Amino acid sequence: xxxxxxxxxxxxxxxxxxxxxxxxxxxxxxxxxxxxxxxxxxxxxxxxxxxxxxxxxxxxxxxxxxxxxxxxxxxxxxxxxxxxxxxxxxxxxxxxxxxxxxxxxxxxxxxxxxxxxxxxxxxxxxxxxxxxxxxxxxxxxxxxxxxxxxxxxxxxxxxxxxxxxxxxxxxxxxxxxxxxxxxxxxxxxxxxxxxxxxxxxxxxxxxxxxxxxxxxxxxxxxxxxxxxxxxxxxxxxxxxxxxxxxxxxxxxxxxxxxxxxxxxxxxxxxxxxxxxxx
Length: 278
Hints:
This protein has helices at residues 3-16, 23-33, 45-63, 65-77, 85-114, 118-138, 151-161, 171-181, 186-206, 209-219, 224-250, 257-277. The chain starts with a helix and ends with a helix. It contains twelve helices and no strands. The radius of gyration is 19 Å and the shape is globular. Helix content is 76%, strand content 0%.
């Protein structure tokens, strides 16, 4: 276990999980391009990934804690009925979470085995870039808020989120673009995207916590560097969220284009570097 490489992976996870550039794609491409000695089959790797997800989810909960407080209190006040904007939004998030949650449980390992190759991750990162550039054109269609988001539109955004199982396709990117496609403005699409990501990322971490404890007890996997990596990922995830929420409020016409161009260049560059080193 190389501590410096873990630190860089933690920073990479914290930034790319929320930026629309695919954390999963970067976790495949970056170690290969820089020839990092990371054994994904090692006993420590799964706990490491689990803690990184928990750190990212904690950052989202911390940044949006007022939103979640209002959503939960509104739900309780309305006795579970979508009467107020808060309880209605919570139900929209539930509807959006269901498709990605079910598909993640059923297809996650199959999809990641199928699309795990370096070249495939680079190609899908470039496809992600094209999607983001086209997403800016969707902004011309309208500028709705979360108060006007329909039930079917929330479900569509949730279905789009499931595409992030493919390395190279960004969870935040695909939900942002789909949010724009159902007439949300950038700020509303970003808020819904980040709120929608919180339960999925949190569940992915919590479900694996028993394995983390078991591996530590049986195999003596050291927890200190793993926990530190999780805190680091959470710190950078919080900074990324704060930056992006401000960014989408002030870049109303071409907010996604810079990220799209980056994905195209990064995917193409990774293929070139990998090809030259082959």
